[in-house]
Design goal:
Bound molecules: pyridoxal-5'-phosphate
Number of helices: 12
Helix content: 25-40%
Order of helices and strands: HHHEHEHEEHEEEEEHHHEEHHEH
Strand content: 5-15%
Largest sheet: 4 strands, mixed
Number of strands: 12
Shape: globular
Length: 373
């Protein structure tokens, strides 16, 4: 048995990641302090170029969060009051916030039980004359099934926005997510696969006009200082975050491969347990942002893991149609049964590049112990 077999396993260990690139970060942040470009600036511009290339896209605009990038994406598509945007009820709430910020209404479509992403089979019936855009999420790092969504998008002439906030570098049929839709948005919240040392986000597109307007909207609606062509926002990426992300992007492919190692090891060790394990669909190469298992006794399992020093989390306990903030939409339990069941059963196990084999074994042993007791 490895020496650290009984050590607690944290759900997330950002310290380990920072430690592994500390010298590079120190140098990048020092450069930022020296050049004093704290809002946008050369490090952000360089990162935008590098991240666009990483996504196989022509343009990238750095933002201060994924939420603000999503908001601006919908503004670029002309979404506003009276419009509807189709999305998933099973995601982090920010996907829906972006719709609400424009004054439009989120219209939810239930999820597919296997991937927990928006179910394309249910998409078409949610389209109305008010539908202005489709905004599915590549949840947990796993791409949603793009081909059927793209076919419906084309038939109804609706723009698609990919919420790729959890899916940096995930692949659909061999191609990196980020350019399947008109616009894609990413989050660099610290715990994401590519995380800033603070908040950050990006809007990615192949459309030069969208990119130019996104850059104006993030900066008070201006391209020339103190000249404001439209109502804008302060959604700029900080210079230091651009510097940090530039460093970390160089390590992302290696880190994603490590996440894949962890996921595959869990698959091996947890096979044969009563858990429903996450599986990549045939079309998908997941970025393995989260490793989400499912079981009807989720709350008991969570308590068991925590009592035994294994960190875990629930993404997400309440689907968006049942959140208080969206009571005005008039939904009730049972409206999206697949999402509601997922919310009752899902449990995220630790997954990060630095997780050792001993830690993975420890997690698996504690999980198995739950089913023996
Ligand atoms: C699916 C999804 N959408 C949107 C966001 C919002 O990103 P941010 O936290 O950077 O605003 C997040 C991240 O938390 C997310 O996971």
């Amino acid at each position: 048995m490895p020496a650290d077999m009984n050590e607690p396993v944290p759900y997330l260990d950002l310290r380990a990641q920072i430690k592994s690139v500390r010298a590079e970060l120190d140098a990048a942040i020092a450069r930022s302090l020296d050049n004093c470009t704290f809002c946008l600036g050369p490090d952000v511009t360089q990162f935008e170029k590098d991240f666009a290339k990483f996504c196989g896209a022509k343009h990238c605009a750095g933002f201060n969060s994924g939420t603000s990038a999503l908001h601006v994406a919908l503004l670029l598509l002309g979404v506003g009051p009276g419009d509807e945007v189709i999305t998933t009820p099973f995601t982090f709430v920010a996907t829906s916030w972006a719709i609400s910020y424009t004054g439009a209404k989120p219209v939810y479509v239930d999820i597919d039980d296997a991937t927990m992403n928006l179910d394309p089979k249910l998409l078409e019936r949610a389209i109305t004359p008010r539908t202005k855009a489709i905004l599915p999420v590549h949840l947990y790092g796993h791409p949603f099934d793009l081909d059927p969504v793209l076919a419906i998008r084309k038939k109804h002439k609706l723009p698609l926005v990919e919420d790729a906030c959890q899916s940096h570098g995930a692949k659909y049929k061999g191609k990196t997510v980020g350019t399947f839709g008109a616009i894609s948005c990413f989050s660099f919240y610290p715990g994401k696969n590519l995380g800033a040392c603070g908040e950050g986000g990006a809007l990615v597109t192949n459309d030069a006009a969208f990119a130019a307007r996104a850059k104006a909207l993030r900066e008070h609606g201006s391209t020339v200082r103190y000249y404001h062509d439209e109502v804008g926002y302060n959604y700029r990426m900080e210079g230091i975050q651009g510097a940090v992300l530039g460093v970390k992007l160089k390590h992302l492919a290696k880190w994603t491969a490590e996440r894949r190692r962890v996921a595959h090891r869990y698959h091996e060790l947890l096979a044969g347990t009563p858990l429903q394990l996450p599986r990549e669909a045939g079309y998908a190469e997941s970025a393995w942002h989260l490793y989400v298992v499912r079981h009807p006794r989720r709350d008991e399992l969570k308590a068991h893991l925590e009592t035994n020093g294994v960190g875990c989390a629930v993404h997400y306990p309440i689907p968006l149609h049942l959140q208080k903030a969206y009571a005005n939409l008039g939904h009730k339990p049972g409206d999206f049964p697949v999402a509601e069941k997922a919310a009752r059963e899902c449990l995220s196990l630790p997954i990060y590049p630095e997780l050792t084999d001993a830690q993975i074994q420890r997690v698996a042993e504690v999980v198995k112990g739950f089913f023996k007791s």
